[in-house]
Specification:
The protein has 125 residues and is mainly alpha-helical.
Amino acid sequence: MFGCSVGRKKKRSLKNRAGKRARKSSGGKRARGSMPRRRKSRKRKRRKRRKRRKRKRRKWRRRRRRRRRRRRRRRRRRRRRRRRMRRRRRRRWRRRSRGRRRRKRKKSRIRKWMPNGGVEGGRGG
């Protein structure tokens, strides 16, 4: 099935465990065919990859890499002269209103769930 005996054995044990779990949870009903998907181990994958890499690496196949030198072209940037215009800043005097300004009262959170200070007995009050 998998090409190696270890994989086959593992699959069988998982199948049994799946049945046991089904019997425990759903009163005697055995789940047939509902086998959990086996998670492929990363370790085995890594090992396989390493083996493949080793096989490919051959001394006589090694090529000499030639280094190509790239010529960099220098771009000349033209500098533009900007004429600076002087601006006079005007100061605007803000009119200050006389008399005390009343601060707007921020709605408190307590009032939402306890109206009238808990006298009425609102939600939670």
